[in-house]
Amino acid sequence: MNHDGCRFEKLKYSSRRVLQYGFEELKAHRIIAMCNPENASSWRLLERLLMRKEGQPIWHNAYQHAILADEWQRNNE
After folding, report:
1. pLDDT in tens, 10-38
2. Between helices 40-48 and 3-20, what is the axis angle to 10°?
């Protein structure tokens, strides 16, 4: 695996752990993330984490993605 591939896997793993902590330890109902629409690597990572894009960047230059606790549970059983 190349350097970028290793970095992506580390980011994906770290992001999954943050979501896991938020849902399992903090008992969050919903977690959101925002990124610049021009940063394809960021929004692709959020989509690979099964977060869905909410709306379009109309008033500011950001995508918002979200995932609910029950969606997280279903995908991590």
Report:
1. 899 999 999 999 999 999 999 999 988 88
2. 50
